[in-house]
Write a structure and sequence with these properties.
162 residues; 3-stranded antiparallel β-sheet; 8 helices; 8 strands; 20% strand
Length: 162
């Protein structure tokens, strides 16, 4: 994986490379060469600094890793799920309300590792987004998941009902 950080090249060079489309920004201060394919692993790795040990990426950020809005920059809001008993502080560079955690065993159990980051499945990410995110964004994500075959109709109903 070829991630490039603004701190690697300096802020002025970073801005110039993004402006000239040499670098495709994935999020604030992190990107990849514009000729590199934007894979799930690359998107997940770009969010690694936001996911503490034992935590799982959830909500809109997890859906972005799975491909929803994949050509856009990472969602500004980062939600993570942690097992019972964990109370992580926001990582450096992230602040509430743009970084939040919730204790959710089922979301953590439905996770798999993508690009070195624990990411929950599409159904759990949708459930998290529907309960805590923007409703319009959640409905758009649900339509995307159904249209792309990421979840089936029965799973979609189950997510909405929970």
């Amino acid at each position: 994986m070829a991630l490039l950080y603004a701190t690697d090249v300096g802020e002025a060079a970073w801005q110039r490379m993004v402006r000239d489309r040499v670098v495709a920004a994935l999020g604030p201060g992190v990107g990849h060469a514009s000729t590199t394919e934007r894979t799930s692993a690359l998107r997940a790795a770009s969010l690694a600094a936001a996911v503490p040990r034992r935590a799982t990426l959830a909500g809109a950020a997890a859906l972005w890793v799975h491909g929803w809005g994949a050509n856009d920059a990472a969602p500004r809001r980062i939600d993570v799920a942690v097992p019972r008993g964990c109370h992580p502080d926001p990582p450096p560079g992230y602040c509430a309300p743009w970084w939040q955690f919730v204790t959710d065993q089922s979301t953590c159990a439905a996770a798999r590792t993508v690009g070195g980051v624990s990411v929950t499945d599409v159904g759990s990410a949708l459930r998290s987004l529907l309960s805590k995110g923007d409703l319009g964004e959640a409905v758009e994500a649900a339509w995307w998941a159904l249209a792309e075959g990421k979840i089936d109709r029965a799973s979609g109903h189950a997510v909405i009902a929970s």
